[in-house]
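Quick log. Single chain, no ligands specified.
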Amino acid sequence: MVSPSLLRAADLLDRAADGIAWIGKGACWLILAILVAVLISIVGGMMRVTSFAEWGTEVFLLGDGLSLNALLEIQWHLFGMMLMLTGAYALHENRHVRVDVLSSRFSPRVALIVETIGDLILLLPLCIVMVERSWPLLELAWRMGERSNEDGLTDRWLVKSFVPLGFVLLGLLGATRIARNILTLIGAPPRQPVETSHGR
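-> predicted structure:
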């Protein structure tokens, strides 16, 4: 019989993982903003419009107006944000790249052990290194007031902040997965598999 404390710990970890993944699930909706920005920039390019609006004073991120270049940069800023925020969601939903040819041959227990070791020696160190390497670049962009040289967006630190943020979320999800897998290995019921379009 599984102890109540083990069940509570497993439930707490499941809720934590769901909460982290929820951020990435919400970030998926950024694709709509990207599509709108692409559509407007295509129409603007066809009509040879280089400036959509000017307001004469500095506005956060947009500067003193909205140019075609700024709109093009908004697209890759939003795409970068979406990419960094949805990594943890992809991992939570089991949509990440795995060597299924090997894992399908393992027993559930061995597969869990391999997954846990992989998260420990590959995923968490990668997240730590990426946060350590990206943080100084974020600080430099903040201190220098880095902005586009092509009449685009200002405050480039904003998009750079999503690199460490994305890896922090991925690392936190990896840590909850490791702890949850250990609980399963010592007797807690396994987490219910996430249904995906790939049938996993």
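The longest strand covers residues 51-59.
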